[in-house]
Amino acid sequence: MSDPDRLSARERIWGEDAAAIEAKLVEADPDLAGLILRVAYGEVFERPQLDLRTRELLAVALLTALGAERELPTHLRGALRCGASVAEVRETIVQVAMFAGFPRALAAMRVLARHLGDAEDADPAG
Amino acid sequence: MSDPDRLSARERIWGEDAAAIEAKLVEADPDLAGLILRVAYGEVFERPQLDLRTRELLAVALLTALGAERELPTHLRGALRCGASVAEVRETIVQVAMFAGFPRALAAMRVLARHLGDAEDADPAG
Amino acid sequence: MSDPDRLSARERIWGEDAAAIEAKLVEADPDLAGLILRVAYGEVFERPQLDLRTRELLAVALLTALGAERELPTHLRGALRCGASVAEVRETIVQVAMFAGFPRALAAMRVLARHLGDAEDADPAG
Amino acid sequence: MSDPDRLSARERIWGEDAAAIEAKLVEADPDLAGLILRVAYGEVFERPQLDLRTRELLAVALLTALGAERELPTHLRGALRCGASVAEVRETIVQVAMFAGFPRALAAMRVLARHLGDAEDADPAG
Amino acid sequence: MSDPDRLSARERIWGEDAAAIEAKLVEADPDLAGLILRVAYGEVFERPQLDLRTRELLAVALLTALGAERELPTHLRGALRCGASVAEVRETIVQVAMFAGFPRALAAMRVLARHLGDAEDADPAG
Amino acid sequence: MSDPDRLSARERIWGEDAAAIEAKLVEADPDLAGLILRVAYGEVFERPQLDLRTRELLAVALLTALGAERELPTHLRGALRCGASVAEVRETIVQVAMFAGFPRALAAMRVLARHLGDAEDADPAG
User: Fold this and answer.
1) Which pTM value belongs to this model?
2) Dihedral sign, Cα of residue C40, residue C42, residue C46, residue C51
3) Fewer CB near the terminus (10 Å): N or C of chain F?
4) Chain E: nearest CA to F99, how far in angstroms?
């Protein structure tokens, strides 16, 4: 197996979904995809000042506050892949309720519950 | 029939959907559901400073301004259950257009139209 | 004294500040001022589907949710002029905290506290 | 063929979708539809200070920043009908990423890609 | 005089304020300043798909919709420097009112009026 | 000195500003202050699922995304008090730029720079 410390931020966040997420980004718009890959993932997320687990909890909080429900699954999975527990992701969303109100937090929890349900369905041992 | 003044704010807002709404809240996340039930419904909505009809019009306006389309149906129905007319709910959304622009108001009207259409479909006398 | 039912929505909301508010609107931009006066005040706020007290509580809630602190004083005063009590205005802002989070509600309460303090300062019997 | 300079802003933006869009607006709410048709399209969009191509790029940018994904298709098509190229619409959305972040821009690009795909599917020569 | 076509997007937008704006950006945070200078100004704003006048009107619209009143002056001036007239900038803000409501548009008009007033004060021939 | 593990979340976040912050909250509105103290600080921030350093970085990110510049200083200081470095707080704000755009991030950096400047001014050894 590959050394996780050698993986890029993007590889660690996207895991086995990497090819599918990148293909969809490029399909949406190659120029915007380029900026997201190069600036957000390739530069900001690679900076050492914050660890990826913290960065992914921040991403979950920000997408929850924005109400960006379709972008949430990538970073809900990313947070779990980077070492956050389901309880930490849930608590991050609970905290958003204090800063951005209950409706945004509830919408994010529904996305998370759907994702966890799908993950169980996909896993016969789930 | 039960005395409406004895019912909790939550019972009056949720009406016959109460069991379904509560089950879905808990399914999304038990901790967040607890805060919503205890703080928002059990405490703030129970305070006597505003009547429930006004509170539900405020809820419709705020969810419209947030663009929280999936959370809207609960409070569109809640406003009607708490004594607001369809015309008052529509006018609340029209007023939001002045403060938060036409797109948010239009999106909320579409949710309302769908809800009223469904209600008619479900009601053979509709 | 003039019959309050004969007054326009704008006159009832703006009260003795009417000339100052209108002058400032026109100074900011005559075209935008025209739209606000004609469409928001002259048309939407004049529609009979909602009373002005409810409309002004909706305005307070929406401006609080938007974080529009400089536009708030006009409608905080307007709500009080149209028959809402200070307790109702405060409770409206408390309810916003549930839908849009504590920071927006707190910022609005600070604007309200400042306004009420100024009003007391201006009133030797306050 | 009719003289494009004689067409209303609304006819130029909505093109062959005009009847369908207007019917849907009225179906959502006749009063709100009236305001949108009369004030937004009939007055603001008719003012000569900005050409319609610029106005539609502004509309795309604003709907992208709001995350108003269901309202976007009308103005994505409108921008193209009013003389903007696909490259200009894409670039407008890329610029929004700088001011409102990548998630909003990405969501809008997905709506655009879907629209362009549908347009190709509908056009045997596409 | 230097050839305007040889100037960078940043030089054309910032004009004689360039040194002051850059110093303030770096003072706020060198890393963030680096991203803004390199990605927003050095890359996105340099792309040929949109002219700078259109980009600056988009910037004014987006900052108005965000309520980012302190960031507005840079792009109000930038729009004027890149060839937009005061009437076009005003009309851009009027259009924002349709998409994001009157309060945001009004706040931006106040910033613009203040800027234009200051410009007159600074110009003995104003 | 007191054992930091015995301190409440609120005491650790507010530090020596505790009395001043609480007095200002109550002055703004006693009921809202009660909810913030009891629910946000007394309940959510006390939950063990996330450490206070992570919670305060989330708070900084959320207030930055909301543009809540007046509420930011409390949590900028809180993050530093709970063990985050200045570099981590800065990086949190840089990450917000990716999710909510450069203007919000820049505004937050200006608040932070002002706070750090004030702290230096207050500290003769700064």
Assistant:
1) 0.94
2) positive
3) N
4) 14
Query: Residue A104 carries which side chain, given as an amino acid letter?
Result: R
CA-to-CA distance for E76 and E116, rounded, in angstroms?
A: 10
Give the pLDDT confidence of D1-16 residue by residue, as tens digits: 456 568 999 999 999 9
Which chain A residues touch C98 with a CB distance below 8 Å?
Answer: 101-102
- For chain C, 126 residues long, the average pLDDT of each consecutive 10-residue run is 75 96 97 98 98 98 97 97 98 98 98 88 52
| Residue type at position F77 | R
ipTM for the whole complex? 0.92
**Closest chain C C-alpha to B125 CA, distance in angstroms:** 26
Quote the CA–CA distance of D80 and D78 in Å, as a whole number. Answer: 5
* Residue ranges in chain F assigned as alpha helix (H): 9-14, 18-28, 30-35, 52-66, 72-81, 86-100, 102-122
Extract the residue ranges of chain A whose pLDDT is less than 70. 1-5, 120-126
User: Distances in Å between the alpha carbon of C66 and those of C108, E40, E65, F68?
Assistant: 10, 26, 10, 11
Whole-angstrom distance, CA of residue C65 vs CA of residue C105: 8
Determine whether the interchain pair D68/B103 forms a contact, defined as Cβ–Cβ distance below 8 Å: yes
Residue D47 DSSP SS3: coil
CA E116 from centre of chain: 13
CA A119 from chain centre, in angstroms, equals 15
Kindly state the DSSP code that residue D38 receives in the 8-state scheme: I
CA separation for the pair E98, E58 (Å, rounded): 15
SS3 content of chain C, % helix, strand, coil (to 5): 80, 0, 20
Read off φ and ψ for residue C40, nearest 5 degrees.
Answer: -70, -60
Q: How far apart are CA E75 and CA E115, in angstroms?
A: 11
Beta carbons of C98 and A102 less than 8 angstroms apart? yes
D100 with F101: Cβ contact below 8 A: yes
Coil vs helix vs strand at C48: coil
